[in-house]
Amino acid sequence: MIVLGAVVAGFVQGLSGFAFGLVAMSFWAWTIEPQLAAVLVVFGALTGQVTGMISVRRGFNLKVFLPFLLGGMAGIPIGVALLPSLETHLFKTILGVLLIIWCPVMLFARQIPPIRVGGKIADSAVGVIGGIMAGIGGFSGPIPTLWCTLRQMEKDEQRAVIQNFNLAALAFTMATYLSMGMVTAKMLPMFAIVAAAMLLPTILGARFYLRISEATFRKIVLGLLTVSGAGMIASEMPSFLSGHAAARIVDSQR
């Protein structure tokens, strides 16, 4: 299951520049202990971003990227601070529902005009939200990706923003996990398995990205965001089912 999740998520990340965590978690949440799954998500996504940086290196604009980066770096400590007290299951479920409703609307409503208001302040605010989500569980990509799609950025520019934002946010998050002692020696063999399984699929996904058009890329991104929302909800099903089963046991004892 770890290999299968890494292969599918690696290809998706290589193609789109994001969504490793959401795709992988839809596989891993059913069979892997939550803390291990969270660390593997951040490690796999970070590995995929580094691989993608080598495979795809065009469209980068520092002036466009910098507001997202600064916002993200401000948001990550907030997410980490919120993590102990936040009801993450409810948070991820609500976000998943929003993605599976809003993204198909955008996919089929071709006449939605691009968002031009807000400028760098709005981009920074979106970066803060992405940073908070990275600190909560490594989910740095969905909100900035959706925002760039609403901005109707060109394919290469959007890819560069999302890929570099995710790289910075995930590196910071992994450093935080290390400092908190969440990464243990027992996880190292799992890291090796994930890295080996995802390497070739990530490269293949990046190669496929270079061959697709702007319109196709937009459809793929919105489709993946929809699937990511469904995956986020699916990843919470084990917790929901176990909680429901526990509630039934308590009721029967009463």
List the SSEs and their pairings.
Elements: H1 2-16, H2 20-28, H3 34-55, H4 62-82, H5 88-108, H6 119-137, H7 142-151, H8 155-179, H9 188-209, H10 214-253
Helix pairs in contact: 1-2, 1-3, 1-9, 2-3, 2-10, 3-8, 3-9, 4-6, 4-8, 5-10, 6-7, 6-8, 7-10
Question: Sheet bearing the most strands, described?
Answer: none
Decide which structural class fits the backbone.
mainly alpha
CA radius of gyration is 18 Å
Strand content: under 5%
Give the N-terminus to C-terminus distance in angstroms: 38 Å
Envelope shape: globular
Explain the overall architecture.
It is built from 10 helices and no strands. The radius of gyration is 18 Å and the shape is globular. Helix 1 (2-16) runs parallel beside helix 3 and helix 2 (20-28) runs antiparallel to helix 3. The chain is mainly α.
Give a concise summary.
This protein is mainly alpha-helical. It has helices spanning 2-16, 20-28, 34-55, 62-82, 88-108, 119-137, 142-151, 155-179, 188-209, 214-253.
